[in-house]
Amino acid sequence: MSLSKVAAPPSSDEEKDRQFVTALARGLRVLQCFSPEQPELSGSDLARLTKLPQPTVWRLCHTMLELGVLVTVSGDKLRPGLAALRLGHSAIAGLGIAELARPHLQELADTFEGAGGLAARDGIYMVMLQRCESDNRLLMNLRVGSRVPLSTSALGWAWLAGIPDDDRARITAELEETDGLRWGNAKAGFAKALAEYRASGFIINSGVLHRGYNTAAAPVLAPNGSVPYAVNCGSASVTLTVGRLRAEVGPRLAELAKVLRHGLSPQEMNARIL
Length: 274
What we know:
By secondary structure, the protein is an alpha+beta fold. It has helices spanning about 10-15, 20-30, 45-50, 55-65, 80-95, 95-110, 155-160, 165-180, 180-200, 240-260, 265-270, and strands spanning about 40, 70, 75-80, 115-120, 125-135, 145-150, 205, 215-220, 230-235.
């Protein structure tokens, strides 16, 4: 499963904002190109993914190499260094809801011989903040920090289902432009999942992200209408049928989402959609 991504170019609003630091934004775009699926990238790779001139990319990389944010590996490849890793750990550690969710997700994983997770949106991806697994070996290879596409994953569909209609229309239009192939293949399935969410409070994703893998998911809503997180539970279809997801797993995820909502900090409750 390929999860390669392209960092988004600056918007026209950003270009007009006098407080916006373009050089910093470009450096962050470079860092956003790295992922568990692409842990090592060359300068040419980074220029292609960010759509920045290669001399600009090399200057940014040189600065981050000097600061330890990037380090060199074999050949001409780069990867995030310990300085970047500390930032990631600090961000995840600051999300107390991940620990609040852990025992509930582990119980779901053990009960249904699958895996449960908590994720937040990052561009056209959902990033895993918590991951709990049973001892079933037929599970997807995901861990904290892994990304799954907003377009095709149960977590992404739950997030999209939970946000207000106007925001959903805007973001799905963005998916048409930035992730058109995946979204084009998935949007009919998402429309059915959205109808199920409106009726039951959870969505079902059967074999869309990964053939032979079934997942239910629910959004964690904040009082202001935003969706800071989504939770899921899934397993191989031979272990967890769609019928069992709909009858047993989905309702429990919807209840868990309500529990987690009450555990949100004021900062998390005020999370913005973008």
